[in-house]
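Subject: complex prediction, re-run

Hi both,

The earlier run crashed halfway through, so I resubmitted it with identical inputs.
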Amino acid sequence: MKKMIFAASCALALIAGGAQAQERDLRIAFDVPYEPFEYKDENGELTGFEVELAEAMCEEMNANCEFVIQAWDGMIPGLLARKFDLIMSSMSITPERAERVLFSEPYYNTPGGWFGPESFNTDVTDMDAMEGKTVGVQRGTTMDTYVTENMGGIVNIKRYTTADDMVLDLEGQRLDVVFVDYPVGEQTVLTKEGFKEVGEPVKLGQGVGVAMRQRDTELAEEVNAALRTLKEDGTYDTIMQKYFAYDIKM
Amino acid sequence: MPDFIAEWLNQNEIFTAMTLMEYWDGMVTTVHLVFLSLVIGLLVAVPLAILRTVRNPFVSGPVWLYTYLFRGTPLLIQLYIIYYGLAQIEGIQETFWWEIFREPFYPALLAFTLNTAAYTTEIIRGAIVSTPHGEIEAAQAYGMNWFMRMRRIVLPSAARRGVQAYSNEVIFMLHASAIASVVTIVDLTGAARNIYSRFYAPFDAFIFVALCYMALTFILVFAFRKLENHLLKHQRPVNG
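This time it finished cleanly. Structure:
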């Protein structure tokens, strides 16, 4: 009996070893800077919550990962054109996107936050008071969809490609208020003098998932399994606590 | 054929009446912006081109410097400097200038106008300096003064020589106006980018907008051909 168990475990080790030997190459795309999810530190090294999570995930999947920097506008086209295999760049799961790409299970969800100058005292949920105000959003984000659907025609919406440009216009007083992913606003707007949070954070959407090509269903299963392990064994929490004072786990 | 179009319009998700209206608004903004900057640019360029041909370097030098600066740097950089740079000036928000520069339209109009005026100045200058000497001598022999010579002989003949080069500048300006979308103006390209980011359909959104630009270009080419026919009538064969 003992011999049989030994033989079986040997065979298992062989199989596992065989699987390990075929280390797969994966390219993961990020749009930087998007603090604290992905950005470059003082030494120019790519880091952030999603970058560290991606590193842990690659280790879990036994994959050889290469990180690619890609501007947000070209994210999905780049994935479909096989410039990279995974997007782990805070891409919220939406039905429109799900028609183009395959999403993993969500791995985090952050609310949208309202940020503005100290002098801004309007209630952002009061549509009469908000009428005619200029609101900045990042083009194509869930925040953009929310403002467009709920406040389109009431407020004047300005869409930006990068959060940097948007914050520059908020500082320049071209915008009354911005509606942006909460942690991003925390890092870019609240670090500046004279700005504050001006409304309750709004829960949006179904969370953020890893995006892959539709046909890569096997890869998606592996990604889901790896993420589940990381969430259960505490690795996820350790990384999260490094970057956030609050819970974004999903 | 109309049935086919109606069916296609009903089936597709992207080109609904709403998105088509967005494209239309974008086209109005593009035409508005390009037309104004071209008209103002041309009005500025004619006197500048004349100054540029003056022998005195204190008169022609500054114009040379202006055209050199604006032709020597990308339009996108000029737009960034005017749009984001001006907003960084301390206290500009309290002056009346802010009424003008708060919205992206006027910074873009200013950048486009300065840029096209620089190119147009050089086009007109080139046409002026290549005026045949005989024409000027003949005008002098008639006793025309400098102003009359400019108005009756030099500028009309320069217009004939410059119109082809200028038509290129107009088309380039239309296409260069696509960068207005980076400063939040929803022009044709801005509309296409908004629609693209909503549906994640780059081909549909951008090919449609490319066709819009092509239609505008076609109108311009047609108008300039008419203008050239008119200005260069004397060069056509008699029975052509």
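Residues 49 and 124 of chain B are 6 Å apart (CA to CA).

- K.
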